[in-house]
Amino acid sequence: MPIVKYPRATEPLWHEWDRKAQKCGLRHTVYSVNGDQYTGEWLGNLKHGKGIQVWKRDGAIYSGDWKFGKRDGYGSYSILDPVTKEYKKVYTGWWKNNKKCGYGVTFYPSAERYEGEWSGGLRSGWGRMYYWDGSMYEGQWLEDRPGGQGMLRLPNENRYEGGWKDGKKHGPGKFFYLDKGQLFEGIWAADIPKCGILIDFGRVEAPAPTQYPIPKV
């Protein structure tokens, strides 16, 4: 008489079937009830490895690395332009725990762009921001705003170099009025110069110098 082996009483049979059905290692395409789609690698029924996620609601797409169901590693996030019907890249760089983390480039509306470091989905560390009006900030960031030491260059080439806090000029700094050939060096607080000294600086080369030079003390 043949010997029949039954599953252990401590483990229901459907547990064994579920383990066999789990996606692991190979590339699979899975469609969600809401229409989202993922094609890529899996580990223990979680997105893990290389994969592409498409969100049906807004047509966004992520292509890159995954770790235990979350974007983690290097990848690109793009959105679908409702007018041109073409994908526009929004972010390319590093991710951690589903948020931007590490070095990456973000493209904003109105042709603005940020290149630099991220932490927890916010601009933090060193970075360079190009604004729509032609100005550019390069320096340290903290919680999505300039914080620390940095330089802001305006469209007319005038620039500020010094301290920043909460996105505003704060602490010791220098403002170069290259259009007038002057330099202000002093202390700032919340974007307002509190005290300092104004001197002529490159007055001869300035395109629009003041009528009278600043007398020397």
Key features of this structure:
1 helix; mainly beta; 15-stranded antiparallel beta sheet; 4% helix; 217 residues; MORN repeat-containing protein 3; single chain; cytoplasmic vesicle
Q: Please, could you describe this protein's structure?
A:
The protein is mainly beta and 217 residues long. It has one helix and 15 strands, in the order αβββββββββββββββ. The protein has a 15-stranded antiparallel sheet, with no helix packed on it. It is elongated, with a radius of gyration of 28 Å. About 7% of the residues have low confidence.
Secondary structure blueprint with pairings:
Elements: H1 13-21, E1 27-31, E2 37-43, E3 46-54, E4 61-67, E5 70-80, E6 87-96, E7 99-107, E8 113-119, E9 122-130, E10 136-142, E11 145-153, E12 159-165, E13 168-177, E14 182-189, E15 192-200
Antiparallel strand pairs: 1-2, 2-3, 3-4, 4-5, 5-6, 6-7, 7-8, 8-9, 9-10, 10-11, 11-12, 12-13, 13-14, 14-15
